[in-house]
Amino acid sequence: MKKFTRKDFILIVAILVIAAVGALANFIIRQRPAARVEVSVDGSVVATYRLDDEVDTILETWSGGSNHLVIHEGSARITEASCPDHICVNEGRISQNGEMIVCLPNRLIVRVVEPER
User: Fold this and answer.
1) Highest mean pLDDT range out of 6-20, 26-40, 102-116?
2) pTM score, two decimals?
3) Which of 31, 55, 65, 104 could form a cystine bridge with 82, CB 3.0-4.6 A?
4) Is the dihedral of CA 57, 63, 99, 77 positive or negative?
5) Residue 9 contacts by C-beta under 8 Å, 6 or more apart in sequence?
6) In the beta sheet, which residues pair with residue 45?
7) Tens of pLDDT along 46-91?
8) Is there a contact between 104 and 43 (Cβ–Cβ < 8 Å)?
9) Are 100 and 112 a contacting pair, CB within 8 Å?
10) Cα 54 from chain centroid?
11) 75-81 and 44-50 as β-strands: parallel, antiparallel, unpaired?
12) What are phi and psi of 15, to 5 degrees?
């Protein structure tokens, strides 16, 4: 069995520092106020909604598909979808910066973003 060397120790410390910096950056990003939900279909932004609005809409997606988007009490969710697996429906509510709901069959992304400056 190989002994634990100084290089091994330096590698482990470097990995832990990188992980800590990444976790801190993620924490800081999520602390900023989330104000908008950006909806994109097939890579193009098709709609933007405020999180403090009450929205209940059907989104027409790629190749004739559809997703039902509901924004209520500061969070967004997909309640119904025409895709076969319904993973997007099971993802639940999103409300913090960077969170997203993805429906791959319909090429839909619903993402929480910061307010415009």
Assistant:
1) 6-20
2) 0.73
3) 65
4) positive
5) none
6) 40
7) 999 999 899 999 999 988 899 999 999 989 999 999 999 999 999 9
8) no
9) yes
10) 20
11) unpaired
12) -65, -40
